[in-house]
Specification:
Distance between the termini: 20 Å
Helix content: 55-70%
Shape: flat
Number of strands: 0
Strand content: under 5%
Radius of gyration: 12 Å
């Protein structure tokens, strides 16, 4: 994994609300600090779970099912938890 690359990057995972990711993801862009990147590199499954749970928690009612489906796929691709 390269510095700054997301531990939960899953190119085939559906994105229930791409605008939410930019606005609220705890690790999008500059919100992903070097220390967080290092911690996530040591525990990529934990990072995938944390970030996918944030996606579920931040989803609108209309997007909740899509967020849960995307989270399940992300968690499976990261080795499962």
């Amino acid at each position: 994994m390269l510095l700054g690359e997301s531990a939960t990057h899953a190119p085939d995972a559906p994105s229930p609300d791409p605008h939410w990711h930019r606005q609220q993801s705890p690790t999008f862009g500059r919100r992903n600090t070097p220390s967080q990147i290092q911690a996530d590199a040591l525990n990529p499954q934990g990072a995938a779970y944390r970030d996918s749970q944030a996606m579920i928690d931040g989803a609108s009612f209309e997007n909740k099912a899509a967020a849960e489906a995307a989270a399940a796929q992300i968690r499976e691709l990261s080795g499962g938890l």
